[in-house]
Design goal:
The chain has helices spanning 2-16, 31-56, 78-100, 105-127, 137-155, 157-160, 174-181, 206-210, 253-256, 263-272; strands at 162-168, 198-205, 219-227, 231-234, 237-240, 243-251, 279-285, 289-294. With 295 residues, it is of the alpha+beta class. It folds into 2 domains: 1-155, no CATH class; 161-295, no CATH class. The radius of gyration is 20 Å and the shape is globular.
């Protein structure tokens, strides 16, 4: 859910602004740009919220309640990785906007983290009234941790050498099969809820950690986390399944395409840096398998 919300927001920001990931060309805070950023963020978040309100929270319970435990079974915590990455993405998205206004980098990062955490809190407050879910302190905690990740990176070279990414490819139809068994008919484009075909990655800068410059600076190694397609229904609840773990080569898009510096290219690279592109991959669990190009 958090991924769809943020992608909707990002798309609206992309369409309604000229500043996303653009070059910072001001020495002080520009009040006109602050107004533009503020109004664009309000428009984008409001439109995103209105769009997902009907899709996520149709059935609202009457009382605030905490998650009864369903959240820790659902998708074997792959959704927790989505909340963390969603926090990173939201924080970065907002920070770039504040940087464009002329705000100093550290301050922009902190503002981005606070805005990112606020999105996580807003979503959990809505889930607190949903009949099946409830307020999840784990979702809020991991989402907020992701929101503050860019801030932590700004204080640590080691953390700056680590980045988080997402990949999706329809390897299995299990999500739609199980939903059909529950008499539901999700769109065939509902990839955002299709956790068995999603993978979340942490990508490491090989040169930094190996203390060498013999490896191309754009070549990284990544560890992936996902869910296999062995879940099944028990009283309409998805249970079972196994977590999947991967090791793969990866690319630092910002370094690989460092000479591509047009305004449009900066926006494209901004989105691409969060996507894990196809590369040789080994699945180490639950069953060993080699993929020449896994996505």
């Amino acid at each position: 859910m958090i991924i769809r919300f943020l992608l909707t927001t990002a798309t609206l920001l992309f369409l309604n602004s000229s500043y996303l990931y653009s070059q910072i060309d001001t020495l002080g805070v520009n009040n006109s740009r602050v107004l533009l950023v503020g109004s664009s963020l309000a428009l984008s978040l409001g439109a995103s919220y209105a769009y997902v309100e009907n899709a996520w929270w149709k059935d609202i319970s009457s009382e605030f309640h905490f998650d009864p435990g369903n959240d820790l079974v659902y998708a074997l915590n792959v959704d927790k990785a989505a909340h963390f990455l969603g926090g990173v993405y939201a924080s970065d998205l907002f920070s770039q906007s504040f940087l464009w206004t002329g705000m100093k980098r550290k301050k922009a990062l902190w503002y981005g983290a606070l805005f990112g955490s606020s999105i996580q809190l807003a979503i959990e407050m809505k889930d607190a009234y949903a009949p099946y879910w409830g307020f999840s302190k784990y979702d809020l905690g991991l989402g907020s941790l992701g929101s503050f990740w860019p801030v932590m990176q700004s204080y640590s070279k080691g953390l700056s050498a680590l980045n988080f990414k997402f990949s999706y490819f329809k390897h299995s139809n299990i999500y739609w099969d199980l939903e059909a068994q529950r008499d539901k008919n999700p769109s065939r484009f509902a990839w955002y809820d299709d956790y068995p075909n999603q993978t979340y990655w942490i990508s490491a800068d090989l040169n930094y950690f190996l203390k060498t410059k013999q490896i191309p600076d754009w070549l990284n190694i990544a560890v992936g986390f996902g869910l296999d397609d062995t879940q099944y229904l028990d009283n309409s609840k998805k249970i079972g399944g196994n977590n999947e773990y991967y090791i793969a080569l990866d690319y630092n898009i910002l370094k690989l395409l460092k000479n591509w510096q047009t305004p449009l290219s900066r926006k494209i690279k901004y989105f691409l840096k969060y996507l894990k592109l196809p590369a040789p991959t080994i699945r180490v669990s639950p069953k060993f398998k080699f993929y020449p190009f896994f996505i």
